[in-house]
Task: inverse folding
């Protein structure tokens, strides 16, 4: 197993560890230890998300296993964290929001599968990349909001809880808009592929019938 795939596997291993930290079985609950440990672990896992892809391209080690595991690890990491947060911090992370966000991922995966069978791909848009960053902020702030309502740093007051609430709703908005953007791009390409197939079918029929191309 090459280095990029090993990094991807390390991210998958971090997922059950993160879920365990966000439960009552975690032995250190006082003084924000649970929240900080979970936040640091999630940030590290998020860093490996970009690192494995970068190394795979830089070292020319893009493999079929990596192409399968990398997006799978990303989806499990975010979905697992959000589902755990429904129980860990239900005042901030609502069930219906998590259902929509995770449902969006199922929709995009389904569209990607269809696109693959049709012989084309849809590149990740800037909205999709923004969605990834916003999700990281959302999860980390929601974890921290379990332990703190606000931070006071000198004269500066950081409203941790309100940042978490704003982040979760902004994540919902960006996820929805990026899903619509992805679907529009998918629809244009699938419609174009269907038109190409129809033209190819008509040309092949005309050829078999001995008709010149363009004749009626």
Result:
């Amino acid at each position: 197993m090459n280095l990029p795939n090993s990094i991807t596997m390390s991210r998958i291993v971090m997922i059950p560890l993160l879920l365990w930290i966000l439960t009552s079985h975690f032995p250190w609950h006082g003084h924000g230890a649970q929240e900080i440990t979970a936040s640091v672990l999630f940030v590290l896992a998020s860093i490996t998300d970009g690192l494995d892809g970068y190394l795979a391209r830089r070292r020319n080690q893009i493999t079929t296993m990596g192409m399968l595991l990398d997006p799978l690890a990303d989806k499990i990491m975010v979905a697992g964290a959000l589902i755990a947060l429904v129980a860990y911090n239900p005042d901030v992370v609502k069930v219906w929001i998590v259902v929509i966000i995770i449902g969006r991922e199922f929709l995009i995966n389904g569209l990607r599968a269809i696109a693959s069978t049709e012989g084309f791909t849809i590149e990740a848009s800037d909205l999709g990349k923004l969605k990834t960053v916003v999700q990281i902020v959302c999860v980390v702030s929601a974890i921290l909001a379990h332990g703190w309502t606000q931070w006071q740093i000198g004269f500066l007051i950081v409203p941790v809880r309100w940042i978490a609430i704003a982040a979760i709703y902004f994540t919902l908005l960006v996820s929805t808009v990026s899903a619509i953007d992805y679907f529009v791009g998918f629809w244009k390409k699938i419609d174009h592929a269907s038109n190409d197939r129809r033209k190819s079918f008509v040309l092949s029929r005309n050829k078999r019938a001995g008709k010149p191309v363009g004749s009626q």
Remarks:
- Residues 113 and 121 are 9 Å apart (CA to CA).
- The domain at 3-205 is CATH 1.20.120.1760 (Four Helix Bundle (Hemerythrin (Met), subunit A)).
